[in-house]
Amino acid sequence: MRVLGVDPGLTRLGIAVVDGGTGRAVTAVAVDVIRTPVDDDLAVRLLKVADGVEAWLDRHRPGVVAIERVFSQHNVRTAMGTAQAAGVVALAAARRGLPVMFHTPSEVKAAVTGSGRADKAQVTMMVTKLLRLTEAPKPADAADALALAICHLWRAPVRNRMAEAEARAAEFAKAHRARLAAAAAQARSGSGTVAK
Question: What is its EC number (predicted)?
Fold first, then answer.
């Protein structure tokens, strides 16, 4: 499976492509940062993000896009820009019919380092090690994009199995309710007759 990982941001958007192999084998395909000038109008910046992401989607043809879920930050303006950039990425993926998955920062950290409270240096170190890179990806946005792709590759099989199990459980529950309803209806119709 090929995953496009995105660490959304308006000034710097980390973007990476990682291929998943058998087991937990992962291979970095490409990593970079899409930058937009802070002096540009918001609409122009979002257009530059969209153009950059669409070029990556066309070039690398991922099967899924993994985006970091935006949480409220102390700086509302930064949070809004981050959320808008994430929306542009999700839209570009949806236009191509690609599934989009959102992962929380703690999910990503836990998947890559084993701790949901890991700092950026720990995430970068583990990404470098897991992907057998000769040097650490910089800036941190690039490392975070790689970590998002790895997180999705490792968590997707578990999520899929859980979704399948939930779907089977729902089907069993539906069939069980139908049998109970049929038995109750039969009992009601049987109790209406008087034995002679």
Answer: 3.1.21.10
